[in-house]
Structures are given as structure tokens and as C-alpha cells.
Amino acid sequence: MAASASPEGAIERLVIENCAIATVDAHDTEYATGHVVVAGNVIESVGAGKAPEGLAGVVRRIDGTGHLVTPGLINTHHHFYQWITRGLATDHNLFNWLVALYPTWARIDAPMLAAATQGSLGMMVKGGVTTASDHHYVFPRGSGDLVAAELAAAAGIGARITLARGSMDRSEKDGGLPPDFAVETTEGALLATEEAIDAHHDASFGSMVQIAAAPCSPFSVSTELMRQGAELARRKGVRMHTHGSETVEEEKFCHELFGMGPTDYFESTGWLGDDVWMAHCVHMNDSDIAAFARTGTGVAHCPSSNARLAAGIARVPDMLAAGVPVGLGVDGTASNESGELHTELRNALLINRLGAHREAALNARKALRLGTYGGAQVLGRSAEIGSLEAGKLADLVLWKLDGLGHSSIADPVTALVFGPAAPVTLSLVGGRPVVEDNRLSNVDEDAVARTARAEAQRLARIAAEG
User: Which of 72, 206, 444, 445 has a Cα at 20 to 30 A from 126?
Assistant: First the structure.
């Protein structure tokens, strides 16, 4: 039962007790045994020991013995549509992978995207994600209203969404990678982005849907679309997102086409600022990191995808030391087939320790912060989500840590990050369950799997027919 306002206006409360708690607040406050009280859609109190006596309107009490409560995980970069093209081009670098898959992606339609959205988001939510950002940039002609299809499918799962309305206007004939029929005109992309903002963006406290302006990448987008996209986003008061500095090939491409590296190019087009976040940022030198820190530009770190595509290792510890906001991203499931964020907590820590004398580059608590509060910063929602504090939205996860997989790890945060994927006993978004007993609460996940499989097969048939 969700904690909500009753018809008479009384606040309904949900109480979790006897659990370890990692608040991820500014002081990294933790409780070995504590409580969380949810009132309506917000956290009312967090603290040590039992919940206060005499609370009115308590509709549910949960004994959290053997569990850890954390803020809900926040995924800052994804491509939901790729759920139905997993397991393809598994030995390719980024450019070859894109060339191999764009002809298939260019056949996607609204039913396919809806099925892929529920598959992608469902998998993440089962693994503790409560907010996810999806960068959707493939809008083939005649494919239907893809934005509406995605948002309707996401609403069925119950997670918060930042839909980064992407776009591409540089096709093969212009020296880009996408097929000609898979891109929009510059004017059409800008108009469609503005329409998506006007129709769906909700800037209010607790909103379930926000829209960002998100031209895809330097090698699939014209300079004009980048510049006008930035102007549109700032006129509308929404955030901005794109791919940046992912590979050495991108660095070379930018120097050849624009006469400068990616970060300088982004700055020249208005794409650095505290309303901007970039995916990947693998190939960043000291001056690039300083520019991001100076402007407050955020980073979505995607360690598994970067490894899958052999892109390299992002300098996350250096970014954090410089003051760059950094969150974690799953990235699309065609380059991260596991599709869930717990893997990124663990891989961010492990990958950033590679190399001599890097054993302290990241630790378990820094990794958890990347996946929670860091993500909230990157998405511009740190006043609402990302930590367990009174007055913030009740987006939280109750992780079961008393089973075999975590049985001999004493510290619960270490168990969560270093150990195997922990079962989710309960996950709340605004006080409402989205997972209970490791199963999705709002959809039949077996039906989601069947539909996604059927749509993947249909897409493969269409792509094979050309």
C-alpha cells in the first residue's frame, strides 16, 4: 500500500524500521540500525533506532532487519530503444558498432519503442533505479509519436523520467553515420523538441516527467542544430544533454571538421554550463576537466558501456577532485546488455582503480554517491532526490543483504557495492511501490518480456528485408 493522502485529507504514513541506512546526505550520515518515515510522497524523518511513537495514519510498517536503505539509484544516460537490439555487434568499437546497428535502429516504430521502454526501465527498476534519463534520438519517418509512446510505457512502470529528446540532422550524405532516412531536418528537429517540451515537461516539485534538449553527438548533428538547440533549451528553461569525448575517433573527427577538440567545440556552440550534462567524457585532458568544473557541466559516467565498446577509462576521480558533477549511466542495452545500474556502481569503482597505485581512486561510498546524489546533481534535481533527508521525495530502496551472497560482508554499503546484485525487497517512488519482493509492482514483468521479445523479432525481420 502506498503512503498517500486519504480522501479525508489525513496523511498516510509508511514506516521502515530495524534497518541499516545510508542517507548519502552532505555528511554521509549512516545508521547501523535506524528508521525511515514516509508521509505522503516525501520523507518525514530519518534517524537512529525506532520510529517516533504515536505516529498517526500509519498504513504500513516494515521490519527492515537484514536490509540496507539507500536513496533510489539514478541513471543519467540510457537509450531505451536498444533493449530490442541486445547482443549484436559484440566485438565492435563505437563507430563500427554504430554503422552495424543504425540500419536496424532506423526501422524502429512506436510499438517497438514502447516494448523496449518497458523492458529497459523494468530491468533498471528491479535493480533499484527510481529515476532514469533516456536519450532518444532516432525518429525515422512514419514511425509514429515516439515521445508519447515512450512516456506512456514508462508511466506504466512508475519511475521518474527525464526524456532527453534527441535529434540527428547529419546523415551519411553529409559525412555522418546515420542512414539518410533516419535523420530529421534541422528545422524539424528543433520544432519537434519544442513540441515535446511544451507537451510534457513538468518543472514542479515531484514531477514524474521532465524533458531535455539533446542533439545526439558531434558526428551526427550539425553545428547549427547544436547552437539553436542550446538557444531553445535556455529559452524554455530545460536541461541539455549530448554525447561527448567518448572515443579517440571523435577527438580526431572534431579536429578535422571543426579545427578544435570536443570540449572547445561544445563551448563554441553554447554547450557548456550548469544546465548541461554529457555522456561518457572518456577522453578529457586537464584543460577539458577544468572547463567542465568552471562551468558546472555534468558528466554521465558509463563504465560498462565504455569497456564493452573499448572506448577507454574516464578520469572520474580527477573530475570529482576538480568539482565536476558526475553521475552514473547504464547507457543503451545494445552496449550494456545487463541493463541495470548496480553493475555500474561496482564497475565504476573497479575500472577506476585500474593502473598502478590506484587502490583508493574510488571507494564503496563514493560509488554509491555517484549512483544517487551525483545523478541527482547531473539531472538538476538534487533538491528533490538523491539523498534520504526530511522533506525530500520518498524515492528509496530497501536492499536485502542477509542472504548467501552478502552473508560474510559486515559493512552493508561495502556489501551492496562490492557484492553481487542485492535483491530489492521494496522500492518506492514518491512513496509508491514500484518493486516489492524483487518483482515489479505495476506491470506483469513476464508479459513485458514476451512483448519485448516479439518486437525484437519483428524489428529483425523488417531490418533484414531492407
Answer: 206
Q: How big is the CA angle at 73 (ends 428 and 369), to the nearest 5 degrees?
A: 130
Nearest-angstrom CA–CA distance, 457 and 235: 42
Provide the b/e sequence for 371-405 (b: ≥16 CB within 10 Å): bbbbbbbbbbbbebbbbbbeebbbbbbbbbbeeee
Chain segment 232-277, per-residue pLDDT in tens: 999 999 999 999 999 998 889 899 999 999 999 999 999 999 999 9
Residue with cell 593502473: 355
pTM for this model (two decimals): 0.96
Under the phi-then-psi rule, with left for phi > 0, alpha for psi from -120 to 50, and beta for the rest, what region is 262? alpha
The answer to whether residues 48 and 34 touch, using CB atoms and an 8 Å cutoff, is yes
Helix locations, 165-222, DSSP H: 186-200
Measure the CA–CA gap between 363 and 30, rounded to whole angstroms.
16
Give the C-alpha separation, 151 to 159, whole Å: 10
In a 3-state reduction of DSSP, which class is residue 187? helix
Mind listing the pLDDT tens digit for each residue in 220-229?
999 999 999 9
19 phi/psi in degrees, rounded to 5: -120, 155
Which of 46, 43, 49 has its CA nearest to residue 13?
A: 43
